[in-house]
Design brief:
Elements lengths: L2 H5 L13 H13 L3 H4 L12 H13 L10 H14 L9 H9 L5 H32 L5 H14 L2 H5 L5 H12 L8 E2 L4 H6 L4 E2 L3 E6 L5 H15 L4 E5 L4 H13 L3 H6 L4 H15 L3 E4 L6 H15 L3 E5 L12 H19 L2 E7 L22 H5 L2 E6 L13 E9 L5 E8 L4 E4 L4
Parallel strand pairs: 3-7, 3-8, 4-5, 4-6, 6-7
Antiparallel strand pairs: 1-2, 8-9, 9-10, 10-11
């Protein structure tokens, strides 16, 4: 790289957005005087937020030199040698501070942790503000583009906006002593509906210590026509209608008319085919009238758009978490979602599965994902599904906290002695036992029910 380039005058035009020149000089000087600050600030400060490239490289030079000089301060001579070595090899893209500037910088050092921490927070705040301005400019360009797509572009902007503070939200590691007290309290406090989502099935709730927990991704797998949509809607009904837990049902297969029919049939115990044919009896209509207010007041949000991607889902979840306290999301079903681009379908589904798990953890919600199984059960003598039958990616099994496989013998053998029964095979339960729960399938009422009340 030529000397002319290194010696060229700098562009003194300030970058758009809030500047943090004073704080940046202080933080660069402080790490020279006390290199240990680099580790002490690691959980709350990213040197990439230093706007002045030359000062950022001072930070990096101190970080490099301290690997060999482990005691005391790092004076400007050592920093200058490192910067000049990088300059000679073309490693750094900007002209570094010269030795006289480094000397003046060193004189500004404030080695106390409290002062450095305060300046680091100021730098971070102003960097986030600059990113906000950049995002608003990007959004304006998107909106002015002839190819503007509200669904895609707004979702992308929402995702970027959340990402601005993701590092700060991550927080610092905790000592085990800070968390063991909460574990002791949980040991003597049974879970309630405030921290569990009842499934609507007594044996499942018992197995899961009261229901699904926040942050869990629950996968319900089944072959086509087994009733996975019915089960998924049943879980949503139990949470939202029975227990008034804010719930979102994302249907990529059934329309809102079909969903409305199924909800009415299941709640009021009216034959589904009668509703579809418009021949519901007066007695059943009277019973429906008693249940409609309960259904209408439920915090059950339904979306039947055929297009669903991770950014769109993330924006919808964020909005409902903030406005109604959303706690449960049911997706019907995973393989119909728009997956992130990848080298092959398995990699796409793996990215999608991981993204869904991260959504559950980030927003502290339970995410129930319906998924289709491959043809493995049909090729075995015993048709019961296994977790390995999850279609297209083993990552689904890996990411899931709970895997429930739905099986009905009468789907394969009409004259089966177990006609009308269904098995919920809990094939994976992270941190808990597995089991097979037998329920009754009342397909004409669009529901599964406990055997005790069938």
């Amino acid at each position: 790289m030529s000397a002319d380039l290194w010696d060229a005058p700098l562009d003194d035009k300030p970058a758009d957005g809030p500047a943090s020149a004073t704080e940046e000089r202080v933080i660069a000087a402080s790490v020279m005087a006390r290199p240990a600050l680099i580790d002490e600030l690691a959980h709350e400060f990213d040197p990439a937020d230093i706007q002045d490239d030359r000062l950022r490289w001072v930070w990096h030079a101190v970080d490099e030199v301290r690997q060999t000089l482990t005691v005391g301060e790092i004076r400007w001579q050592a920093v200058d040698r490192q910067l000049q070595a990088w300059k000679a090899t073309g490693y750094i893209p900007v002209p570094p501070l010269d030795i006289s500037e480094l000397m003046r910088l060193y004189d500004e050092a404030e080695p106390s942790y409290q002062a450095a921490s305060w300046h680091a927070r100021q730098i971070t705040t102003k960097a986030v503000a600059r990113r906000c301005l950049a995002l608003s400019s990007d959004m304006r360009l998107r909106a002015q583009s002839a190819g503007f797509d509200p669904e895609t572009d707004i979702a992308a902007a929402q995702d970027a906006l959340d990402g601005l503070m993701r590092r700060e939200a991550a927080g610092a590691p905790k000592l085990v002593g800070d968390i063991i007290g909460d574990a002791l309290e949980r040991a003597v406090t049974p879970p309630t509906n405030a921290d569990r989502i009842p499934t609507g099935f007594m044996d499942l709730d018992s197995l899961f210590t009261g229901g699904f927990a926040a942050g869990q991704m629950v996968v319900v797998g089944a072959r086509p026509a087994m009733g996975k949509s019915t089960l998924g809607l049943g879980l949503a009904r139990a949470a939202a209608i029975t227990h008034r837990i804010p719930t979102l049902f994302e249907s990529l297969e059934m329309g809102e008319d079909e969903l409305g029919n199924s909800i009415l049939a299941a709640q009021a115990r009216i034959p589904l085919h009668h509703i579809k044919q418009g021949i519901v009896s007066d007695a059943d209509m009277a019973r429906a009238a008693r249940f409609v207010p309960q259904i209408a007041e439920a915090p059950l949000h339904i979306n039947d758009s055929a297009h669903l991607s991770l950014p769109i889902l993330r924006g919808r979840i964020r909005h409902l978490v903030r406005t109604v306290g959303l706690r449960l999301v049911v997706i019907d079903y995973l393989q119909l979602m728009q997956a992130p681009k990848a080298e092959n379908r398995q990699a796409e589904v793996a990215k999608l599965s991981r993204g869904l798990k991260l959504l559950a953890k980030e927003f502290g919600i339970t995410l129930v994902v319906l998924a289709q199984l491959n043809r493995g059960p049909e090729q075995r003598t015993e048709k019961k599904p296994m977790v390995s039958d999850l279609r297209e990616s083993g990552a689904i099994e890996q990411d899931a906290d709970i895997v429930i496989l739905l099986h009905r013998e009468d789907a394969y053998e009409k004259e089966s002695p177990r006609a009308g029964e269904a098995d919920f095979i809990v094939g994976k339960h992270r941190g808990g036992p597995t089991a097979t729960i037998t329920t009754a399938f009342a397909g004409h009422y669009a529901q599964f029910v406990d055997m005790a009340i069938a």
